[in-house]
Specification:
Blueprint (H helix, E strand, L loop, with lengths): L1 H19 L3 H18 L7 H6 L2 E26 L11 E25 L2 H7 L3 E3 L6 E3 L18 E7 L2 E4 L6 E4 L1 H8 L5 H6 L9 H10 L6
Parallel strand pairs: 4-5
Antiparallel strand pairs: 1-2, 2-5, 2-7, 3-7, 5-6
Helix pairs in contact: 2-7
């Protein structure tokens, strides 16, 4: 009887551990929300609001991993959200993966948060393809830093995509030229129950999953509509 009781207790513990384990895709959405909020709350080290207001889409990649010993590489997962067709509000998130390599004498490893703004329709078409090499169809440039830098941002408006990184508390523009961006159908299935492609997700009125509500609220708080 005592043995049976112990086995039952072990069974319940294992069951609880399985069901209490956080969904990794939902956790990644929470991390993406934290990245955006923390960056935008920084007084002088945020994404310029005038650029955010003109962005057609945003891409958030928490903890892009880089590792290097002579030959470097990058890998991370994140999400893309785009403006609604009328320019008011943001779409549900589509899952993406970013992969890339760099060559040179590099030793060490790091995890870096990455944010990208897609600034024109050409950039939108590029990032919503099933696979896109950054810098291929739309120019990618390191973005400027500073909440109120409207006088300095005109030179960046011609770039299709602007990119920033945050590592060890330092937020700065970064070039991701040559990295590959692709949709992640498996993560989309985890969010929506089926393998939807990102173009379908961000161009339709698809209901956002519960895990994305806070991120959408933050995006709408800082930039509720597209400014052309």
């Amino acid at each position: 009887m005592r043995t049976a009781t112990r086995l039952l207790a072990v069974f319940w513990l294992l069951t609880l551990s399985v069901f209490s384990k956080p969904n990794p895709v939902a956790q990644r959405l929470a991390d993406a929300t934290d990245i955006f909020t923390e960056i935008m709350n920084a007084p002088d080290r945020s994404i310029p609001v005038d650029l955010l207001n003109r962005a057609y889409c945003i891409i958030l990649v928490p903890a892009l991993k880089s590792a290097a010993f002579i030959v470097g590489g990058k890998y991370g997962k994140g999400f893309i959200l785009c403006r609604r067709a009328n320019g008011v509000g943001w779409s549900a998130p589509g899952a993406i993966r970013i992969e890339g390599g760099s060559f040179g004498f590099q030793i060490g490893g790091s995890a870096t948060d990455v944010v990208m703004l897609v600034m024109n329709q050409q950039g939108v078409n590029a990032v919503l393809s099933s696979q896109y090499t950054l810098g291929g169809q739309a120019e990618v440039a390191a973005g400027p830093v500073g909440r109120s830098s409207s006088a300095q941002t005109s030179g960046w408006m011609n770039a299709g995509i602007l990119s920033w990184s945050r590592a060890r508390g330092i937020f700065a523009g970064v070039s991701l030229q040559g990295s590959t961006l692709r949709q992640d159908l498996d993560d989309n299935q985890a969010l929506y129950g089926k393998k939807l492609d990102n173009k379908t997700i961000v161009t339709s009125r698809l209901r956002a999953p519960r895990a994305a509500r806070k991120l959408l609220a933050e995006l709408n708080r800082y930039s509720p509509r597209l400014k052309k």
